[in-house]
Amino acid sequence: MIHVDSLCKNYGSFAAVKNVSFDVPSGVIVGLLGPNGAGKTTIMKALTGYHKPTSGTILVNGKSIEDDPVAIKAITGYLPEGVPLYTEMTVYEYLNFAAEARGIVEHKEAVIEQTMKRCGLTGFGDVLIDHLSKGYRQRVGLAQAIIHNPSILVLDEPTTGLDPNQILEIRDLIRELGKDKTVILSTHILQEVEALCSKIIIINEGTIVADGTPEEIADAMKGEETITCKIKTNSISNFEEQFTEFLKTPTKRIDEILFETMLIVPAKDGDSIAEKVFRWASSNNSILLEMRRDRLSLEDIFVKLTKEGGNHA
Amino acid sequence: MHKALIIFRRELASYFNAPIAWLFIVVFNVAVSIFFFFVQQFFALDRADLRPYFSLIPLFFTVLVPAITMKMWAEEKKQGTYEMLLTMPFTEYELVFGKFLAVFVILIISVLSTIFIPLTMFLFGYFDPGQIVAQYLGIFLFTGACSAIGQYISAHTKSQISAFVVTMLILIVLNLFAQIPLWLNITGPIADIFNWLSVNFHYNSFSKGVFDSRDAFYFLIVTAGFLYATVQKVYLGRWR
Fold first, then answer.
1. Which of B3, B87, B240 sits opposite A48 (nearest CB)?
2. Of chain A's two ends, which shows fewer C-beta atoms within 10 Å, N or C?
3. How is B182-229 classified by DSSP, letter by letter?
């Protein structure tokens, strides 16, 4: 549905997005994840046709956004960061403007009412946007983005600044919308991505550091997984050398209380290393008190990718 | 065109809701009335002449038009609605023309709201309708040019105050061009150039009630030129 190829965007001499390529299939919710200033918003601005890329192409349904921006804007809904709205208008006036701008002529009133209902704005039609709380403004912003039933929805940090209840409501709405639309949302909240997205693109310093389903990204990072084990030996002896030699992999001691030692073992080979640990303990008259696989959470992956760098997926 | 009218309606509603448009009309009426009846001493002059009235309007517009045009783009940029607007399916031409039309209409309403002044005059004398048509046409053309210049300046900044000051300066300078040859005592082609550039020079014949197509052409060129420049400014802004 959306094909981004070698997208670059410079602001003056600053390269905000460097050679980014990715695909977004239709009907999925994609999360653009990255620290502040990573280039998420810039990518979204390019996707909506607000910013022209310095180089590279963006194809929507095979058509370049440069060639026919108005046609692509017509099938796209956009909620910019910070939810800018005309605060001097009432909710209904504003949505009426959005509907007209989107070329909705037939059953306009019904469409507005229905959109307001969908976004939980029923009864707020006559309220000035200026008098609305942040959560309700967010709903108005979403309502204007979906009023024309777009096939692509671009949401820049849709839950920032909301309270936990509002966040859940907006997420439910996005999940609902994601059933029949392609949704691209940016966030730096990891739970949000885990809760909503079937595809994740992690961006750092203007480049993509990981791209795939949450499972694919976790799989690609498997080399980073570890096993933590607690071994009880029968004497206070330094058994680690022997142990390390048996496993043929370096270990790291993290805790030691009398006969009990806690070690971290890299688990590149997955189960086989766990098996080796068990065999060593049983053949060396030691007791394995605890053994657990430390799977990387999205948070760990995020920190590793955006702080330590590297291209893993 | 239909899309431009959507922008036009929104802008117009926004000016009247805010309520900048109402405030503008009231201030303009008070200012023009005070000047016409007291400063220019219409009753003391004891002469039924519409020219003082039509020469007052450009003077006030030089100061007041920037107050209306300053927010045209600057406010959108400041509030972030600029981004929303530019990602809606409008072309730059529709956006610029819709906004222009809204400001133009508000200014024309302001002018027409002072119609009681010329009407008062009808009590005291006879006026040639053809002359009055030319005078009003001059005002409309002048208003169009001012709106286009103001919009162009507003598209350059987030700050409404900057847009206000710069627009006012430009309008003052455009008014003063005709004075430069007089101050410097120049005649000939150089003086002609200054005169041609001057808004006043072209407006004067209209305010006398004379319609000259060359003067109309000047205002139309300035209006179209600045509208086109605004379109380009908005369009190129995407390469920022």
1. B87
2. N
3. HHHT--SHHHHHHHHH-HHHHHHHHHTT---HHHHHHHHHHHHHHHHH
CB-based contact A101 B14, cutoff 8 Å: no
- Judged by a CB distance cut-off of 8 A, whether residue B2 touches chain A is no
Count of pairs with CB atoms under 8 A, one residue in A, one in B: 67
Domain extent for B156: 2-239
pLDDT per position as a tens digit, A131-155: 999 889 999 999 999 999 999 999 9
Nearest residue in A to B236, CA atom: A52
Residue A311 lies in a domain: no
ipTM score assigned to the predicted complex: 0.88
**Are B87 and A87 an interchain contact pair (Cβ–Cβ within 8 Å)?**
no
Task: Chain A: give the shortest CA distance to residue B190, in Å.
Answer: 41
Instruction: Encode A189-204: b = buried (16+ Cβ within 10 Å), e = exposed.
Output: ebebbebbbebbbbbb
* Same-domain pairing of A190 and A266: no
pLDDT in tens, A53-84: 999 999 998 889 888 888 888 899 999 988 99
Please say whether the beta carbons of B30 and B116 come within 8 A: no
Does pLDDT of B178 surpass 60? yes
- Contact call for B79 and A102, based on CB within 8 A: no
Rg over CA atoms, chain B: 19
Mean pLDDT, rounded, of chain B:
90
In the beta sheet, which residues pair with residue B91?
none
* Residues of chain B found within 8 Å of residue A70, distances taken between Cβ atoms: 89-91
Counted domains in chain A: 2
The whole domain housing A287 covers 226-294
Of the pLDDT bands very low, low, confident and very high (cuts 50, 70, 90), residue A236 is: low
Note whether residue A234 is domain-resident.
yes
Within-domain flag for A304 = no
Considering the domain boundaries, does residue A299 fall inside one? no
Asked if residue A208 and residue A97 are part of one domain, the reply reads yes
Report the pLDDT value the prediction gives residue A270, as an integer from 0 to 100: 66
CB-based contacts of A182, cutoff 8 Å, min separation 6 = A1, A2, A24, A25, A26, A27, A28, A30, A151, A152, A153
The C-alpha of B115 sits at a distance from chain A's nearest C-alpha, in angstroms, of 30
Residue A254 has a pLDDT of: 81
pLDDT digits (tens, 9 = 90+) for B112-139: 999 888 888 788 777 788 888 899 999 9
Using a CB cutoff of 8 Å and minimum separation of 24, what contacts does A170-177 make?
Answer: A170/A138, A170/A139, A170/A142, A171/A195, A171/A196, A173/A118, A173/A119, A173/A142, A174/A29, A175/A29, A177/A146, A177/A153
Distance from the A208 Cα atom to the nearest Cα atom in chain B, whole angstroms? 22
